[in-house]
Every structure is written in structure tokens, then in C-alpha cells.
Design goal:
The chain has a two-stranded antiparallel ribbon with strand order 1-2. Helix 3 runs parallel beside helix 5. The chain is globular, with a radius of gyration of 20 Å. Helix content is 72%, strand content 2%. It has one domain: ABC transporter involved in vitamin B12 uptake, BtuC, CATH 1.10.3470. It is mainly α and 298 residues long. The termini are far apart. The chain has twelve helices and two strands. The longest helix is centred in the first third of the chain and has 32 residues.
Length: 298
């Protein structure tokens, strides 16, 4: 089978499957970050440009827990999203909540400015060079699959991201809490009339979306160097993913995130020069054909 693939495509199978794995890993981060953005936009109608900085904060909190507190990776998966999510709650209460009745542009400019401030603080404190974060011993090494060696940690990232995305979708689409959230996006006053504290629910939803970004940052820390710019370039791609999937669409964010990660990975094999722009070309085509996105509503 592998010989047939190599003969048909003219590309070594290990290279092809290696790029598939790389695409799945990138897709896992695209899906988790776009999922948080979709949750926030779906309820708050805020385009959260702080998301890249909050992804970076998750990685830095994991590094601090290990370097300063001696708490390893498994503790960081639990603690870092809570800490960064709490900062998101503070930001929402003090600043973003004042913009809900204004045009979307005000929220975008505010969150963009907050993201730059957060990045600047971390750059002044830690510099621009990357800080190493070691892979936990339980997930080190690689599996020999016969046609390639797959690092255990990278396989873990893909599986864990899938589980997180599926769990988030189930909570929003299949539970009473999710029904309240979806109803609040349509008629917040009516939901509040039934005794639901909508402002508190909005604040906690923003915190949950931020926590998803921080969780992705913890997953990324052992793969990429922990540095203040790690979320800057990624967030531009993630916004393209959200637009393609449909603003506010949970399922669209997950499917599009993984799908575009795989497309980007294969593009690096067949047409490397286009790998940096293929997602934006797809975004342009989708917007021309379906302005609401593949899974969005007009």
C-alpha cells in the first residue's frame, strides 16, 4: 500500500504522513482557539483579538508553575486555564461589558489594544527569546508505526484537542446550560425574565472561551518555545478559520480547524510556496460563495 502511494504521488510515504501529523497538530490548535473565539462571538458579539495573547499567557503560566512552583505539566493543564480564565473575567467585567451596545469595531479595537499591552508586558519581563518547556516523561518518546515514527506527545495533543472540542460542543448543544446560552444570544431579556442571571452567564462564558485559549497554550508549550510572540501570527490564521467555518458556529470551528490544518500540511508537500497563503485563499473563495461561512447562518 505504501509503495503504491509513493509510486502514484512520487513522494516518500514518511514525508507524506509526517506532514499529515503536522497538519493535525496545527489543526488541533486552530480548532481549540477558533472554538473559544466562536463561543465568545456567539454570545457576546465581540471579536476577541486578545485571544492570541491569552493563548500565550496559558503557555507562560505553565512555564511559571514549573519554574517557580515546581508544578509540572499535568497540574498546568488544570491550573493555567483557571488563572488565565480568571483574568478574562476581570477584563470582561471592567472593560468589555461597557461595549456591548456599541458597534463591533469598538470591541475589536479594545481587545486588539489589550492584546498588545499583554504581549508588551511579557516581552519586557521575559524578553523575545523562547523559554524551553519539557515534555512530561509519561508522554516522551515515539511509537514506531512501521511507515513513520510518531512522537507520543504530538499524538496526545491531537486526541486531547478532539476530546475538548467534542465536550464543548456537547455542553453547548445538548445541555440545559447550552440551551440558556443559545437562548440568550437570541433574546437576553426573555431569558433573564425566567430567573437566569444573564450578565453573570456572559461573564463566565467569556472566561470559559479564554480558558480554552489558555489550555491550547499549555498544550503548545512543549512543542513551540514559550515566547511573547507565539500567539501573534497564529491568531491571524485562527480568525481566517473562524470566518471560513462561520462566525459563532461551534461545529464549524472544529471541523474547519482540523480540515484546514490538514490542507495546510499537505500543501507544504505538494506546493510549499503556497502553504503560507492557502488558508487565506480558501477564506476569499468561501466569502465570495457563502459570506456567512460554511456552517454559519446569514
Amino acid at each position: 500500500m505504501l509503495d503504491l502511494i509513493e509510486n502514484f504521488l512520487g513522494i516518500p510515504a514518511p514525508l507524506l504522513f509526517g506532514q499529515l501529523l503536522l497538519g493535525l497538530i496545527n489543526g488541533a490548535f486552530y480548532a481549540m482557539l477558533s472554538l473559544g473565539l466562536a463561543v465568545i462571538f456567539g454570545l457576546l458579539n465581540i471579536i476577541n483579538f486578545t485571544h492570541g495573547a491569552q493563548f500565550m499567557m496559558g503557555a507562560f503560566v505553565a512555564w511559571m508553575l514549573l519554574a517557580w512552583g515546581g508544578l509540572g505539566y499535568w497540574w498546568a493543564l488544570l491550573i493555567a486555564p483557571l488563572i488565565v480564565g480568571a483574568t478574562g473575567v476581570v477584563i470582561e467585567r471592567l472593560m468589555i461589558s461597557r461595549l456591548y451596545k456599541l458597534d463591533h469595531l469598538y470591541g475589536l479595537l479594545l481587545t486588539f489594544g489589550i492584546g498588545l499591552m499583554i504581549e508588551g508586558v511579557f516581552r519586557n519581563e521575559f524578553g523575545s527569546s523562547g523559554l524551553p518547556y519539557r515534555i512530561p516523561p509519561e508522554l516522551s518518546g515515539a511509537w514506531d508505526l512501521g511507515f513513520m515514527f510518531m512522537p507520543i506527545y504530538r499524538g496526545w495533543v491531537v486526541v486531547f484537542a478532539l476530546v475538548c472540542c467534542l465536550a464543548t460542543w456537547l455542553v453547548i448543544e445538548k445541555t440545559r446550560l447550552g440551551a440558556y446560552l443559545r437562548a440568550a444570544t437570541e433574546n437576553a431579556a426573555l431569558v433573564q425574565a425566567f430567573g437566569v442571571n444573564v450578565p453573570r452567564m456572559i461573564t463566565l462564558t467569556y472566561g470559559a472561551g479564554v480558558a480554552l485559549a489558555a489550555l491550547a497554550g499549555v498544550l503548545a508549550a512543549p512543542i513551540y518555545s514559550v515566547n511573547p510572540q507565539m500567539g501573534t501570527n497564529l491568531i491571524i490564521v485562527v480568525f481566517a478559520v473562524v470566518v471560513i467555518g462561520g462566525m459563532g458556529s461551534i461545529l464549524g470551528s472544529v471541523i474547519t480547524g482540523f480540515g484546514l490544518g490538514i490542507i495546510e500540511g499537505f500543501t507544504k508537500v505538494f506546493w510549499p510556496e503556497a502553504s503560507a497563503t492557502v488558508i487565506f485563499v480558501i477564506m476569499a473563495i468561501v466569502l465570495l460563495a457563502r459570506p456567512a461561512g460554511l456552517f454559519g447562518r446569514a
